[in-house]
């Protein structure tokens, strides 16, 4: 199949037409990036200072700049970005509006953090019952470890790897 100008038509991507609101940070950014790779329209919400990965090297061509962080580029390809301060009630209202039009929301905040801001699943699903709310936390939203941070050392200890290394 070709277009009117004789060029081959682009095949429709698997998730084309899907809107994703990305409130994640760090390695959780990969989830939304993969959705974008499959054709979803991903909107990344960054804090006023920019996502912390923007300030992490190495940088392309060794030029330190937030647009040249290779970590940022690796995890945030195929995303559009908006800067919002979730401490500001008007910015939270804007995120609520974005979520009302989204198909998927991806977040990686500490348990209850977004709910405390009025951006939890219970609040957002009232306006958008079809919203798929993806929460990526090291130990889930509840349970004995839910308030723990997910460090590499903790993962090795809980997974048993440290036991194989001796004292």
Please provide a written account of the structure.
The chain is of the alpha/beta class. The chain has one domain: Crotonobetainyl-coa:carnitine coa-transferase, domain 1 (Rossmann fold, 3-Layer(aba) Sandwich), CATH 3.40.50.10540. Helix content is 28%, strand content 14%. It has helices spanning 29-37, 70-76, 89-100, 113-116, 121-127, 152-159; strands at 19-23, 41-46, 79-83, 104-107, 132-135. It has a five-stranded parallel sheet, with helices on both faces. The chain is globular, with a radius of gyration of 19 Å.
* Beginning-to-end CA distance, first to last residue: 64 Å
Mean pLDDT: 91
Helix and strand content put the structural class at: alpha/beta
Number of strands: 5
| Tally of distinct domains | 1
What Rg is obtained from the alpha carbons, in whole angstroms? 19 Å
Instruction: State the helicity in percent bands.
Output: 25-40%
Q: Can you say what the CATH homologous superfamily is?
A: Crotonobetainyl-coa:carnitine coa-transferase, domain 1
- What is the CATH class designation? Alpha Beta
Biggest sheet character = 5 strands, parallel
- Outline: globular
Total helices: the number is: 6
CATH architectural type: 3-Layer(aba) Sandwich
């Amino acid at each position: 199949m070709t277009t009117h100008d004789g060029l081959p038509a682009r095949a429709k991507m698997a998730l084309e037409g899907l809107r994703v609101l990305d409130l994640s940070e760090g390695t959780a950014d990969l989830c939304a990036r993969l959705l974008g790779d499959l054709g979803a329209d991903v909107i990344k919400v960054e804090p006023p200072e920019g996502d912390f990965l923007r300030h992490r090297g190495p940088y392309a061509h060794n030029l330190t700049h937030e647009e040249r962080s290779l970590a940022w580029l690796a995890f945030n390809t195929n995303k559009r970005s908006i800067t919002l301060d979730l401490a500001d009630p008007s910015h939270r209202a804007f995120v609520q509006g974005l979520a009302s039009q989204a198909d998927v929301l991806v977040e990686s905040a500490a348990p209850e953090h977004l709910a405390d801001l009025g951006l939890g699943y219970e609040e957002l699903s009232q306006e958008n019952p079809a919203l798929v709310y993806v929460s990526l936390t090291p130990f889930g939203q509840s349970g004995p470890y839910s308030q723990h941070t997910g460090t590499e050392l903790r993962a090795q200890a809980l997974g048993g790897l440290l036991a194989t290394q001796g004292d």
